[in-house]
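Entry — protein

Goal — fold tokens:
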Amino acid sequence: MSPSLVPNTLIGARYRLVRRIGQGGMAEVWLAKDTSLDRDVAVKVMRAHHDDDRVGNERFRREAKASAALSSPNIVTVYDVVEDAGRQAVVMEYINGQSLRELLDKRHRISPGLTVHIGMAVATALDAAHVKDLVHRDIKPANILITPAGRVLLTDFGIAKTLSGSESDLTNDNIMMGTAKYLSPEQVSGKKLDGRADLYSLGLVLYECLAGRVPFVGGTDVETALARVQGDAPDILKIRPTLQPLLANIIHQMLARDPEQRQPSGEAVRAALYHAREVGLDGTPTGLTPPYGNTMPTSAREMLRDPTPATTTAAAIPGDPVISNPTPRIDTSRSASSSRPVNKALEKRAHRITPTSMLAAAVAIGVVLAGVVLWRSVSSPSSKTPVASASTTPVATGPVNIVNVSSYDPDGDDNSENDDLIPNLRDGKSGTQWRTVCYGNNHFGSKNGVGFVAELSGRSTGTLSVDFGYAPWEIDVYGYSDTKPGTLAGWGPALASSASDNPGEATFNISTPSQFVLVYLRSAARSPQCSTT
């Protein structure tokens, strides 16, 4: 048996182990330094007690071979395979981030925008694998990695199955391979698999991102697995009713029990999610500013083109600068009889982007020609407090002003966002602005969003004006009485939601008496204050 690994161990005379960053039943993963190229790498090493496991070692070898054959910026890259002291190791790209599992464990559920961003990236990765006749078979949040800049990657092809038949399967026919909560019906039933099994599992992941739980849960793993064979997933709109119905329909199509009723490919899923995002992701009423409509925003339309194989290179997910993704693949290998009809207009869409773009939101609140109007109260002695309000604080009958503004970043390390610029929101100068820090994508990396909270001098209804320096943007506005909630969920439903392709002033009607008003940015445009190099 090989000795246990410790920091500073040299693997393959080249890779010096730094610290262990993960482990499972078969292997452990270490952060290591490539001494030849002076770069950080991840080294996945078979655990010592599996040295003599012939099947396990062969599966480990095949995982490396399968992963190395795939070319996608959304799949963790394999650099090298070595054998050291009788122990096999795979050297991979080091991803400095967290898994989607870790993110969901912390937040319970995430925004539709971030969910679609993740779904598009994983669908792109799966398409690259399926073109190579490889089915992943273990799509789950733990195998989806997210960097602070918002890059999304699929990892762990340890139980992937090739459809070519060139190598025998190393799995037991009596064992369900994969994680029970994320299995497809055909995996549970032991039926023949193709790439649509992975699409079902991805549908379960997206459902969990939006609903905060998977649709099928039983008392045991077997009961959990069988539940998807015996029934359909509960309607996600009943759990999160403000979701856009189109997005809900896409996810439920991915979760069809019959593979023939699902989208035929990862590219079809990516295109459908992209279309849903362009239409608008949240069904909440949009307030007084122009919402995203059925017409694609001009900026996005200008960036669309039919891909030309001779000139098309790897690009980012449509609409998401920095996040590397291949241009949508035009599938000429599948016969018409092997897949369901797809909206050809969606399949043809591609997106040209600047891969080094950085994004930020820049806003100044309440700037008007006649002066600064931060809050315009409409409460009066005759105003009626809504019956649903449980607050005992009386509604203010006189003038109400904003007395304090603070940044809001519940997912950040210090819960603040450019606090030194917050005074610009109240200085009455149109030339000064508060803005977010720079992010790698327009969904604020792996955060749900960022924003600021305005505290009023009294509980009141009224209108709030916000001047956006850049566009497009997407925003939710919340109101609360008495005390500022400690979590986003504590604010309750949004009082107003809106999105626009144009910079300028937006006005939000706060019809529920509130003393604290949260302006929460879900997505934002690129700011020139952020470097693109």
User: Anything to note?
Assistant: Residues 362-523 form a domain with the Jelly Rolls fold (CATH 2.60.120). The first helix runs from residue 54 to 68.
